[in-house]
Structures are given as C-alpha cells and as structure tokens.
Amino acid sequence: MKQLFKALMMHSAIGAWLGKLPFLKGLYLRHVWAGRMDLFYGLFGSYAEAERFSANIGKVGWHDDTLAELLVRDAEVEAPTLFQTSQFAVMLWLSKLLQPGSTVVDFGGAGGIFYELCERYGLLKPPLSWHVVDMPDMVERGRQRHARLGSTMISFGSELAEAPAPDIMLMLGMIQYLPDPFGEQGPGILDTVPALPEHILINKIPISDAPDAWTAQNHVSSVIPCRLFNRAKFLAYFEARGYRLQDRWLVPELQAEIPFHPERTLTYFEGFYLRRQA
Ligand SMILES: C[S@@+](CC[C@H](N)C(=O)[O-])C[C@H]1O[C@@H](n2cnc3c(N)ncnc32)[C@H](O)[C@@H]1O
Fold first, then answer.
1. From the CB of 270, is ligand 1 less than 6 Å away?
2. Whose C-alpha lies nearest to ligand 1, atom 5?
C-alpha cells in the first residue's frame, strides 16, 4: 500500500494531478507527514519561502535538542554499526589525502560521527586535528560523547569563522540546509571559512540539472528547508574560487521524493571531491 502511494504521488503524473486538490494535500500533511523523519513536502522558489512554510507547521531548523539527541546518540557508546554506503567514498578519498599534521574541518559534523567511522577503519593517526562545526546542541553533546570515548584528536565549535584553517573540508549531508551557501545574499561558505582548503569533500546532496528549488524536510521535532541544487550553479561556485572537480559519486541510499511533484523526484543524491588548483 505504502509503495503504491509512493509510486502514484512521487513517480507518476497522477501525483502532479492529485496535487491540484488542496484537501488531499492537507490530509497528507496532517496524517502522513507531520512528526515523521526525513520526508519531503512542497516545492518553493527560495529558502525564505520554504522557511515560511516550515514555520507554519512548527519549529524550524537544526537548533534543536531532540534532534541533537537523535543524531549524537549519547545513549550508546559505539558508533552505529550500519551507516550510509556513500560515506565509504569519502573515507576512500580521506585515506589518500590525510597527511601527518593535517587539519580537517567537518562542517555539519553533528557529534563527530564521521570521525568515529574513520577511527573504526583506522584512518586517523596522530598528529591530526579534526574540528567539527555544528549547532550548539550538537556540539555540546558531541563534546560530552567524545570526552567519554577518550577521543584525542577531535574538537568542536559552533562558528565556521572560528574554526582552524583546514587542509581538508568535509560537508557531508549538510550544505542543502544552509540558507545561503553560495553567498547570494551575504557571505557564503568559502567567504566564511578562515582559509580556503586544498581539498573539499561533499557528500549526500540532492542535485540535478533542473533549476534550483527548495523543499521542506521533517525531522520529528522540527521542519527544515532543504535546497535541491542545480548542478551548473553548484559547480560554478567552486570553480570561480579555483576548485576543479576531481571525482563524483552517486548516493543510492538517499532519494528526494516529493509528493505531488513527481517532476522533481531524485532517485539518488550525489557526492563530490573538489581540489583547489595551485
Ligand atoms: C543530516 S545531518 C549530517 C550529519 C553528518 N555530517 C553525517 O553525514 O551524518 C546535517 C548536519 O548539519 C548541521 N547543520 C545544519 N545547518 C548548519 C549550520 N548552519 N551550521 C552548522 N551545522 C549545521 C546539522 O545540525 C546536522 O548536524
């Protein structure tokens, strides 16, 4: 039944037609969508528009202790045994790029979960500095968790501008949530980071050749605007700052399925390695 609903709403022209019936959208929002995890809803022309919609549902954004508890998993000490397959692509590149003394800035690194995965696979050897930048609730829980774990190479902060200058910057499943990643209204990511890193690894972003658009994604206690990137615009931002695309991979474990908008369905997300030319 669930599969049939998905197929109709998100993968067939019938979904777009049903979207013209306001009562059906209302029913879906109230009875299927609200309070769930990781479902998308709506298509908007800007972050601000998606944010206004989200505010009508409830709390907006990642600054939320319930989410921090979910993501940082302070109850169990071991990192999750199962994790997203595409993170292996990031680990492969990291295994080639990390040098003794490297500084990694993990923007949107939550409670340091990816640091734990890299440790599990033996990638992290001192001297190394790994700095997570995330929202204050995540950072607080991350600090406590890693103090308990006795992690020696990780630090946390909530401002990208105050992070150490990175050799390698990670943005894993996060830039789609930023209000203005490319500095279209103010400073963008690369205007804020203290120094331009040589290597940037981006994973788990919704991207395609369609124009930029925004949707709303529910995260149990909060609703979060999420950007669906236009590929040319995304690459142009980094290329204008001296970066060249080195590698790109598919993220089959993540999809964007937006009810009533089958035309914007993405059957996979993507990941990228960009390197700054000397
Ligand atoms: C989907 S989680 C990804 C977590 C982790 N990087 C991973 O791959 O599993 C998105 C993360 O981005 C963080 N985030 C969102 N907006 C942010 C911002 N403006 N500054 C810092 N972190 C942010 C969230 O708090 C959350 O931890």
1. no
2. 109
| Parallel/antiparallel/unpaired status of strands 199-205 and 168-172 | parallel
Residue 83 has pLDDT above 90, yes or no: no
Distance CA 47, CA 25 (A): 21
Q: Could you give the number of structural domains in the chain?
A: 1
Tell me how far the alpha carbon of residue 110 lies from the centroid of ligand 1, in angstroms: 6
Q: Which of 39, 134, 171 is the best mutation target for the ligand 1 pocket, counting ligand atoms within 8 Å of the beta carbon and taking the most?
A: 134
What's the pLDDT band for 255 if we cut at 50, 70, 90? very high
E strand intervals along 30-167:
37-44, 103-107, 129-133, 154-157
Domain that holds residue 16: 2-276
CATH number, residue 219: 3.40.50.150
| Residue nearest atom 20 in ligand 1 by C-alpha distance | 134
Q: Give the 3-state secondary structure percentages of the chain, helix then strand then coil, rounded to 5.
A: 35, 25, 40
Q: How many CA atoms does the CB half-sphere of 211 hold within 13 Å?
A: 5
Tell me the CA–centroid distance for residue 114 and ligand 1, in Å: 12
Is residue 223 predicted with pLDDT exceeding 70?
yes
Distance between CA 175 and CA 107 in Å, rounded?
9
